[in-house]
Amino acid sequence: MFVSLLGTLGCLTLPDELRPEESDQLLCVPGGQPPLWKFMDSIGSEGLQQGEEALSCPEEGLPRPSDSSELVQDCLQQFKVTVAQLQQIQASLLGSMEQALRGQASPVPAVRMLPTYVGSTPHGTEQGDFVVLELGATGASLRVLWVTLTGIEGHRVEPRSQEFVIPQDVMLGAGQQLFDFAARCLSEFLDAQPVSKQGLQLGFSFSFPCHQTGLDRSTLISWTKGFRCSGVEGQDVVQLLRDAIQRQGAYNINVVAVVNDTVGTMMGCELGARPCEVGLVVDTGTNVCYMEEARDVAVLDEDRGRVCVSVEWGSFSDDRALGPVLTAFDHTLDHESLNPGAQRFEKMIGGLYLGELVRLVLAHLTRRGVLFRGCPSPALLSQGSVLLEHVAEMEDPSAGAARVHAILQDLGLSPEASDVELVQRVCAAVCTRAAQLCAAALAAVLSRLQHSREQQTLQVAVATGGRVCERHPRFCSILQGTVMLLAPECDVSFIPSADGGGRGVAMVTAVAARLAAHRRLLEETLAPFRLNHDQLAAVQAQMREAMAKGLRGEASSLRMLPTYVRATPDGSERGDFLALDLGGTNFRVLLVRVTTCVQITSQIYSIPESVAQGSGQQLFDHIVDCIVDFQQKQGLSGQSLPLGFTFSFPCKQLGLDQGILLNWTKGFNASDCEGQDVVSLLREAITRRQAVELNVVAIVNDTVGTMMSCGYEDPRCEIGLIVGTGTNACYMEELRNVAGVPGDSGHMCINMEWGAFGDDGSLDTLSTCFDASVDQASINPGKQRFEKMISGMYLGEIVRHILLHLTSLGVLFRGQQTQRLQTRDIFKTKFLSEIESDSLALRQVRAILEDLGLPLTSDDTLMVLEVCQAVSQRAAQLCGAGVAAVAEKIRENRGLEELAVSVGVDGTLYKLHPHFSSLVAATVRELAPHCAVTFLQSEDGSGKGAALVTAVACRLAQSTRV
Ligand code: G6P
Ligand code: BGC
Ligand code: BGC
């Protein structure tokens, strides 16, 4: 295509207006331009004599032909731009683009580089009927379109559209007036269409610089192009349109997406050999967008994929680059514009200004007697009277002198043949410069693309739109010729946009509608996980009730098991103790030396699943093997140290060293253990292993061990909390409240076994289908319901089930179910902690998920993150409601207004998840405002606690013996 263009120019030589050396020479004089003052006196309002006097024709003293041609030469010379100047502009614009991409704030970049939330060019699968409202692309008019996307490649349905002229007072009036006008036009258009009034999806093409924070959220930065409505800058224009449509009340229209006209132009590009990755608009204003590497857009913490960036080059104003090419006419035009000092680059290219530039030059030459015998007309002296259409026609070689004559006559002028020829030269000078400047800017964008794609030769298609491109006879050819000169290593094809981007806006709307539908489905799916205050308070109350019943020995999902631990350590404990810690992620054997402080030596041993789910004998023999191995390594063989056994499963304790296993949890299922005294099982295993002496003194639950371990440092620590593989809590209860244990004074530590809370169905209102799937797939269906909504063994599975559900709805992974995602336990709970960590950019989230072989889009990553957040938040809040119930119980037990209590906490989920602990604390503050609850993370695990319980037991036994 490019080659053919050169053919038409009939030479491989450069267009005459670009013969560098000649023009450079011409412009070596500093600034190169004939001194501005030479023109100022005759350009623009201050140069204008007022009223009649201005319109008078000079009787005598018209310039001699030689002077006038020098005058004309001087004038047109100003619009000549050298290759060096164009390259300077190209380089400077590229510099500003990269500065803005890096997010560098000072010096303020000359262009804005605004991300548009359009992350991919059309797939061609988009389908549906969409309403498109275009505001701002074509100046004083807005357009409404009805676009049908068939989703079938090459099958196009012609959009239906209607244009509405926007009254000047609306363009300069109150913002509400403008949006009400737009809403009225929408209704008027839709009234004429055979469409239902309900559920219409609208794409809003809003062609002004905006900060987008989403596909349907966009804040206007500043008006351009003859618009200056009040009360809109700094506002979300989608909301303003929604409000206006609401006020209009005729149609139920959902504004799904807002896009810049350049994006619509790019997205509307017919699918061809090359994807259109640049959208260029030159209409009343000018701008370009292109697909940038997301990793290079600092404001987006993304590293993969591309994002469409609206460059907003209209505001490009680097004095070093633009200064030399700005003419006095440009300064006058800017000075008299609605936004002086702004959009300087646009004012040299945009269709709203080309006519005005031509008018200023014609007025100047007329005043100098060079044109129209020095007789200006009122129209020639009135701003905005020469339109783009005039310039385009007058330049159109096919229009011919007669047409130019007619146009000038319409402007009240009496042109002579020489005038017609000179007017055409003026039009050509102004528009040629515009096309060259536009090309220099486009070449900067192409260089940027080439650079970010690391390609030697960039092959790219540029979609072009806007009436300057469509109607000006030479604009595009000069543009393409100059781009080839400035970016020779880029092979560019230019694709005129078929309908000004309406289809492109519909494409983006289709994508946005799909994403919005996905978001709705995601919200519907996650809504049951978003617990409100009342629901959490209800859980707290239900737990209190279950606690009371359990303490009274009545049927309750909370067994409230007495632990025979009556006191927290008082610091007088001494001695060496062995401790076992079974039931968490790791099985540990510890040597705990208690002097004035506590020293711990421990070793982690694994419990293979085959052992955890084998026979009880096998399990306890394995435990004793580990103890013996540890003793040998620690040189303790043959010593019979008192041993404390942290056994993190529900046990009905009959004494400190007697615990009947009620049922296994957390994936353990060793046979012949439930209903047995696990201390006996351990002792039998010790016996089976001759020559081993062990004195099992105490069996404690890991919650108790954790409370004791933290209680050693902080005597106010009267609650133990585990949120790890499983979850549970214990606390110091008034003995008088514990049925079945004699004594009315003093305290008893109660192991609540809150993991089983809700096994009586009391949590069914909160339980979701995903919880049910996890429960059914577990080895203990119907059991440990509270645990299965909170703890580490299950959260990953809940997330996996939600992801499967969302994939089946087509919301995630383009609906592709992957084998990996159907694999049980493939989504580890630790992934939640990693994915939700604030320090992890989305890119790292993507990496985790890609390791799972999931085909991700950036939207998928965000959605997976939200699923993880919803699941972990619910878990933390439920846990917080439990702790609030316990703290309130203690406060009421003691009849206190305010209670200060500490909670000893352990467990991988609580410790490693970035937000879990703070969410628990926040929920406790909300539900137990009269309790000042301090959470102490246990450093040494509950093994130390078990040793301390053993030490207390030994001390008490000692004191009773003496
Ligand atoms: C620590 C304690 C164990 C407890 C575990 C729970 O390791 O020492 O007694 O069972 O935490 O957390 P986890 O995440 O390992 O299940
Ligand atoms: C606006 C751009 C728009 C361009 C073309 C400029 O004035 O700032 O957002 O894309 O005109 O319509
Ligand atoms: C057990 C509890 C234990 C908790 C934390 C639960 O599954 O039933 O006894 O405290 O996990 O490890």
TrEMBL record:
GO terms for molecular function: ATP binding; D-glucose binding; fructokinase activity; glucokinase activity; mannokinase activity. It comes from the Eukaryota. Keywords: Allosteric enzyme, ATP-binding, Glycolysis, Kinase, Nucleotide-binding, Repeat, Transferase. GO terms for cellular component: cytosol; mitochondrion. Pathway: Carbohydrate degradation; glycolysis; D-glyceraldehyde 3-phosphate and glycerone phosphate from D-glucose: step 1/4; Carbohydrate metabolism; hexose metabolism. It is an enzyme of class 2 (transferase). Residues 72-270, 522-712 form the Hexokinase N-terminal domain. It catalyses: D-fructose + ATP = D-fructose 6-phosphate + ADP + H(+); D-glucose + ATP = D-glucose 6-phosphate + ADP + H(+); a D-hexose + ATP = a D-hexose 6-phosphate + ADP + H(+). GO terms for biological process: glucose metabolic process; glycolytic process; intracellular glucose homeostasis. Residues 278-511, 718-952 form the Hexokinase C-terminal domain. Its EC number is 2.7.1.1. Transmembrane segments: none annotated. InterPro entries: ATPase_NBD, Hexokinase, Hexokinase_BS, Hexokinase_C, Hexokinase_N. Catalyzes the phosphorylation of hexose, such as D-glucose and D-fructose, to hexose 6-phosphate (D-glucose 6-phosphate and D-fructose 6-phosphate, respectively). Mediates the initial step of glycolysis by catalyzing phosphorylation of D-glucose to D-glucose 6-phosphate. Belongs to the hexokinase family. This is Hexokinase-3. It comes from Cebus imitator (Panamanian white-faced capuchin).
